[in-house]
């Protein structure tokens, strides 16, 4: 019978789950590309320089894509621009300077009920690469130096503007033979374009030194004025100790300021000369603020150009410290220190993050940013929901801002209405930081099959039902775990004696074949944990045995039949006693208090003196304590009796029982029935049932 019931339940559950399986799965869009703001350069009016921008996002149902230009829909007159709304690809054919600006991708997921969620990417800045002409070239300078001296030639101030990746270069003999001046141990071009000679040599004498600006993308070079350098020979080149001639520090504060995540560049140029072949120029070493040597290639550090350049990758605020360069040769060494300054658009303290909540719960979004140390704090965050400003016109009961608009709480979320993406912009003097977090609302975990919280077994063959079945949003499959008496079982295993099907979650204990010990072992609290990443539900089921009658029944089989008879007899006796007790208790309930004294006093008698006279005080007053206790005793009796029988059934003679039964009081109450045979009725030894002597 029970088999069938369980099976029917299982079938019903499977069917139910199948139906639920068709419930729609919703997931807001999430753009994975472009993942960071970036710049893209193009050559305008160049047939081979079309711009391709990709966008990809996840989401269920699959999102559709669009691209915006400077935060507005793209207008047809902007240029030959196509957007593939399915793949997210943006193509700009033959781009002109008109399309320069910020492009951002938008991925929209539309749910079956028509509600949609919109994710907005970081923007891609599109710029036309360009190198202007070098205007009004006046005659260059005449520079004279002696052999062994430090010489530098500055790049002209009116250098042309270059947009896109650019470099300074130097050329000599420009009119005769186009020859590049290359960096080496002795020669260096710094970040401002100045050409340095650590020590001059006579062959440096040239009529046409020209600074050049090159644009890698444009593939063009613009050269400046021609400078004349004349190096005169000396009879003996004097040796010189290192002297700092240029550093990022001497070049001014601005040269030391970098944006976070950019590559920091610090430079030091020392003059100096010693007449040691191969070691003429000073060596350069770098140290951090703790005076530890900086090793090229270790951490984010790279040292280049014969030690003159220290590069620090992806700068952070912690890099905002003192750096020291040291130029050394055999004559001595010189140090220069500089303080790197890392500035940043607002730095996330708690960036906006996507969150998933079970329906009905609140969702909290944080958009907390700060400025770099020592800089002006950022403005309050500006929020958008699905790209629409939340400055006004939103429901304040639904969307609650706190902590200076740095925290947004979406109240009592609903799957049908609240799946959305929130955009947050925080700006300071350096720039804007943009973050996005999407809210997904899922159906909560619901327990659809829950057995009785408390199950008592009264006979072998009983089935303990432990089947717990739950449903939740199909986006997150449920996992189940068993706990029993503080032991955790992994997802595939169940506590002892539990018949468990991991696929249907059907779980029960068939007590038919359990031994007595096993019957006792299955008592306890079975806890089912039903959970996924975002929610956990516990179901507790307590199993106990109804007073161990099973144990009695079980042991009966091993005893002779007379014991069965005895047990039955005793049970019968117990029943009689219970009935008697019941009557007594009932009577007392009706009368309110122990009746003897009251009734007799009412009748004009003094029970105490009467007792004294008859010498029966010890006996009759003794039971005074019993009526109060008797009710609780009756409750315990059922437990007490079989236990006594179990261990003591031989000596528990019916004749003794008869004797005991004779100890009824005049009012029908009884004493000593359950006391051990050793304890004699108080009437014989004048001992109060508590053990105290009354006489
Ligand atoms: C319980 O076990 C007994 C004996 O093995 C078997 O006859 C009975 O069908 C089982 N009941 C269930 C519900 O499995
Ligand atoms: C854009 O996607 C296309 C197709 O997946 C791929 O061929 C191309 O390399 C991608 N372009 C960029 C810039 O990632
Ligand atoms: C760092 O640079 C920023 C921006 O130029 C400036 O405001 C700030 O004062 C500089 N900090 C230091 C310590 O130089
Ligand atoms: C189970 O663990 C809890 C907490 O660790 C403890 O309070 C309780 O006594 C334990 N129960 C058993 C049966 O060990």
From TrEMBL:
Signal peptide, first to last residue: 1-21
Residue ranges annotated for the Ig-like domain, each copy included: 29-121, 145-232, 238-343, 346-440
Transmembrane segments: 561-585
Presence of the UniProt keyword Disulfide bond in the record: yes
Keywords for the protein's UniProt record, in alphabetical order: Cell adhesion, Disulfide bond, Membrane, Repeat, Signal, Transmembrane, Transmembrane helix
Primary localisation category: membrane
PROSITE patterns per record: IG_LIKE
Entry coiled-coil feature ranges: none
Membrane-topology annotation of the record: Single-pass type I membrane protein
Name listed for the protein in its UniProt record: Ig-like domain-containing protein
Source species taxonomy: Eukaryota, Metazoa, Spiralia, Lophotrochozoa, Mollusca
